[in-house]
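Quick illustration, no need to memorize.
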Amino acid sequence: MSSGTGITDADGRPVPITVTVEEHLPATVTAGGPAPDAGPALAPRIGIRLTPPAGELVWSSTPEAARELAAELLRAAEEAESAPAGRPVTVEAGELRRGDVRDGDRAMTVESARTDGSTVHVTWKSGAGRSWTQAYAADTAITLKRRLPEGR
């Protein structure tokens, strides 16, 4: 990664980031201590180095923890991209696309939309994980709480 990532410090200055794969001795082995017969196995670690103007920050994690961090960053990015634009938008059923969230008391997200002539079959997924399909006339107005950007 480089400083062109869009990551900034609290003052809005770009922060270069370097991600590396490293190997470290396990925490149970201490430098200069007695070595086990076969020698300690090196444990893989992911290194993350941030270099803001105020100084350098260096972190290290296991591959599993790095995956968890990546998943949380992805979830937060998707949430930020789907944040409401201020007010609901109304589209025709034929224009629905995966990821659209219906306006209402309960979260309903479009899983898929298939057009069959003048009918659109929309598969919705609730916040509780239940899915169901409803049929609409293609020109039926559907009010959305939020919509992912085009091409997502």
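The mean pLDDT is 80.
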